[in-house]
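A reminder from the course coordinator: this example appears on the midterm review sheet, so study it carefully.

Given structure:
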């Protein structure tokens, strides 16, 4: 059951602004400087692994150093990690018809499970299928014949056609679709399924009509499949205050954002290319992290050590925080709790509400987080230890968490999330509140951890049922690795566990997160099927009811 408590106070940010001390005014000025730098166009949206993100890394590292934090990454303050984006079509791919070179990604593409090949040259008629030649296969009739079959899987049918072509000596196969029915075929960079035995291509309808209009005509064709791994390097930034204590409090905030929206996570989907500065998401949290580091460095409280982590890759699926908990630079067993700040820059002057998530992750929070001191805002408590931000990675390691958040707004994941819209005085109030929470925890010792209900870390409108799993977005193998299982949901009832790799749902192979979502769209509430998973070296099958 969702726990929501309201704690009301009566001092507004506007009123508080009139009473700022000299030190508070200095914090507000520094917050403006941090957000102004991080959300400047020069950083081009701080996309993970981009040159702009590297500038942000340099800025945060310099701030940590000037505060007097000790480097606690694996390369000074940095903790580099690779972001595996799956596969990509490389420049060596070739599709030429009668001397006309087709454009990869527009006119055609090799499928992601196509093996790389040398150039295949042939004179072929698309209507003929002969051994030793590339085959052309129209999916139109197949789609029409199966348009009323809710369980038809065009990808599985293509695998059947590939096997048939291979068995009959085809050197390659080119699929196209002459019907008006959508086939959903795309280059799936995350497809980790077994490679086909022959090169496989998909030709767009426009390109087929333009370059191969007559199936009975012989065409001079040259084909080559060239697919490679797509990776980029990002880095967390990690600083440490060693008080010689037995326990450590971790403060975190992600500093990456969307760049120009290249990864498909912008709310603007008109094809325009605009810088997404991410002032609230999450330059605001990063600025708060830096200012908290200053406060903790000056603090006389020595009951805990303090670790400050600016995470990269959050916008891609919590890459940086997951990498840190899997490759920690301190002993995780000694972590007392983790505080995450994501989008803390839009405290509303009207609602004056801050959501604090993770309230249910320790029984101690009830006495530590609630306070009679005037904070300048209302606090809405949410019990869940999970959600679409980096505290989730620590919750999954049985670490109590708190998640500070001032709410969504109309500029979320849009180019309009700019520095001039930040409520800097409101952010100051949140920083001071977090400092109070840390102070209140001094006498509590190491906090006990409790599990809570689960929230999804991502959503999709393409399916109406859910298994109740949290996918591991960093997994690059075949299938979908389970990062967490929601209490009381279908997956848990069936017997799935964290670490399982889902490889099949019913008749449908699961080769990637994309294919998993496409497969879910074929089921409705109440349907039952079998789910196949790989658990260690075992392959297991479970009955599941959606």
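Designed residues:
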């Amino acid at each position: 059951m969702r726990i929501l408590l309201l704690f009301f106070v009566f001092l507004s940010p506007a009123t508080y602004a009139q009473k700022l001390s000299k030190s508070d005014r200095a914090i507000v000025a520094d917050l403006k400087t941090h957000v102004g730098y991080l959300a400047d166009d020069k950083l081009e949206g701080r996309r993970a692994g981009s040159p702009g993100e590297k500038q942000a890394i340099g800025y945060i590292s310099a701030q940590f150093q000037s505060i007097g934090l000790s480097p606690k990454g694996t390369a000074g303050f940095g903790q580099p990690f690779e972001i595996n984006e799956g596969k990509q079509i490389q420049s060596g791919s070739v599709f030429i018809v009668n001397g006309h070179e087709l454009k990869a990604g527009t006119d055609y593409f090799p499928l992601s499970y196509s093996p790389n090949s040398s150039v295949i040259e042939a004179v072929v008629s698309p209507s003929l299928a002969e051994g030793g030649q590339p085959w052309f296969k129209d999916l139109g009739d197949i789609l029409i014949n199966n348009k009323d079959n809710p369980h038809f899987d065009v990808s599985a049918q293509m695998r059947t056609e590939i096997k048939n072509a291979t068995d009959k000596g085809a050197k390659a196969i080119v699929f196209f679709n002459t019907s008006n029915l959508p086939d959903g075929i795309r280059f799936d960079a995350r497809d980790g399924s077994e490679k086909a035995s022959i090169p496989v291509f998909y030709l767009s309808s426009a390109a087929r009509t333009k370059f191969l209009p007559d199936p009975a005509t012989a065409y001079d064709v040259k084909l080559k499949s060239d697919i490679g791994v797509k990776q980029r390097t990002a880095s967390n930034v990690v600083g440490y205050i060693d008080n010689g204590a037995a326990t450590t409090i971790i403060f975190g905030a992600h500093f990456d954002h969307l760049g120009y929206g290249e990864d498909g996570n912008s709310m603007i989907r008109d094809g325009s290319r605009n810088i997404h500065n991410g002032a609230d998401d999450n330059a605001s949290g990063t600025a708060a992290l830096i200012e908290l580091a200053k406060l903790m460095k000056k603090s006389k409280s020595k009951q805990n050590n303090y670790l400050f982590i600016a995470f990269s890759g959050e916008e891609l699926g919590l890459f940086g925080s997951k990498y840190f908990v899997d490759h920690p630079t301190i002993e995780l067993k000694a972590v007392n709790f983790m505080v995450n700040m994501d989008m803390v820059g839009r405290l509303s002057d009207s609602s004056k509400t801050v959501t604090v998530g993770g309230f249910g992750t320790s029984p101690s929070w009830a006495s530590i987080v609630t306070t009679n001191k005037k904070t300048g805002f209302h606090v809405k408590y949410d019990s869940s230890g999970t959600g679409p931000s980096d505290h989730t990675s620590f919750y999954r390691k049985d670490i109590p968490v708190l998640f500070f958040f001032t709410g969504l707004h109309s500029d979320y994941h849009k180019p309009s999330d700019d520095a001039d819209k930040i409520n800097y005085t409101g952010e100051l109030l949140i920083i001071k509140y977090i400092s109070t929470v840390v102070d209140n925890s001094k006498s509590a010792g190491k906090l006990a951890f409790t599990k809570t209900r689960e929230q999804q870390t991502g959503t999709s409108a393409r399916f109406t049922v859910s298994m109740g799993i949290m996918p591991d977005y960093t997994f690059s193998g075949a299938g979908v690795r389970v990062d967490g299982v929601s209490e009381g949901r279908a997956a848990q009832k069936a017997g799935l566990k964290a670490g399982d790799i889902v490889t099949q749902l019913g008749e449908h192979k699961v080769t990637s997160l994309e294919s998993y979502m496409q497969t879910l769209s074929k089921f409705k509430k109440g349907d039952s099927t079998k789910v196949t998973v790989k658990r260690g070296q075992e392959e297991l099958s479970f009955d599941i009811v959606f």
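The longest strand covers residues 227-241. Residues 279-298 form the longest helix (20 residues).
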